[in-house]
Write a structure and sequence with these properties.
Rossmann fold; 296 residues; 6-stranded antiparallel β-barrel; 6-stranded parallel β-sheet; 10 helices
């Protein structure tokens, strides 16, 4: 087994899939893996044991009927957790059965069964049936507990509001990385190629937040990219699309998953009276993209 923090992330869906080890757990949904989440993860890693993030899919609120716009899909969440230096990720299916467990049942059936000795979580952390358990209870049950103070203004809900407003620069400072839009590259209308600006048309995951409509500067695959999130109003479109024009790129991206960083909101989308005006605007967007800087 690799030493703690040595890489080689292990991902499990059931407790028994984890190799036996003494572990320190960070528990939470960790949507977006923002800087507040990183503090919880760092607190768990500081215990000196093998670190495990215990997280949930789907989002707990979604299980009870609430609509939740995720900041990132599960695959990206796991990648970001690996970037944070986590050794293991335990993804628990959050359903009514899991929600019905008492705190003591969760502690024994999940945490102790996974070899967890130390638990880190934010001060507002609650778990178990009717959210009746907290870190203090885990301390009484014999776990080493690490309270991590909440960071003012850093929360997944606040970051969602920023992205809905197109404020990707402030969102990046809270995330600790640029905001992103991602999806599988699919065929679109091929109109961009005809205009001289071929785009990668992204099929975004249905439960993941897509930022405010508009034109953004960003990057992907080591290339700067001008990104359009909108409905193509010049052509009377109504379906929201996310498209990225990769500057100085020539290749076939169809079928590939693309994660695109959003650095700067350049302008709102607009309806142009002619294709010539549209092409002129796109050229200006690309020129600004060449000089744009990452927000971090």
């Amino acid at each position: 087994m690799p030493a703690p923090g040595a890489g080689n992330l292990s991902v499990a869906r059931e407790v028994h899939e984890l190799e036996p080890a003494r572990r320190a757990a960070a528990i939470g949904t960790f949507d977006g893996v923002h800087l507040g989440h990183r503090r919880v993860i760092d607190a768990a890693r500081a215990a000196g044991l093998r670190s495990v993030v215990v997280t949930f899919d789907p989002h707990p609120r979604a299980t009870f009927g609430a609509r939740v716009e995720l900041l990132v899909p599960l695959q990206r969440r796991i990648e970001l957790l690996e970037d944070a230096g986590v050794d293991d990720v335990l993804v628990l299916r959050f359903d009514e059965e899991l929600a019905s467990l008492t705190p003591e049942q969760f502690a024994d059936g999940v945490l102790r069964a996974a070899g967890v000795e130390s638990v880190a979580a934010g001060d507002g952390f609650r778990f178990g049936r009717r959210r009746s358990g907290d870190l203090d209870l885990l301390g009484k049950l014999g776990f080493d507990v690490r309270h991590v103070p909440l960071v003012e203004s850093i929360s997944s809900s606040h970051i969602r509001k920023l992205l809905h407003a197109g404020n990707v620069a402030t969102a990046a400072r809270l995330l600790g990385r640029p905001a992103e839009v991602e999806g599988i590259v699919v065929h679109g209308d091929h109109r961009g190629r005809l205009l001289g600006f071929p785009t990668a048309n992204l099929q975004t995951p249905p439960d993941v937040l897509v930022p405010k409509l508009g034109i953004y500067a960003g990057a992907t695959l080591g290339c700067r990219a001008a990104i359009s999130i909108g409905t193509n109003p010049t052509y009377g479109g109504t379906e929201r699309r996310a498209e990225a024009h990769l500057l100085d790129f020539d290749g076939d991206l169809y079928g590939q998953r693309l994660v695109v960083e959003l650095w700067e909101h350049l302008r709102d989308e607009a309806r142009f009276s002619s294709e010539a005006e549209l092409v002129e605007a796109i050229a200006a967007d690309c020129a600004r993209t060449r000089t744009a800087e990452s927000p971090l």
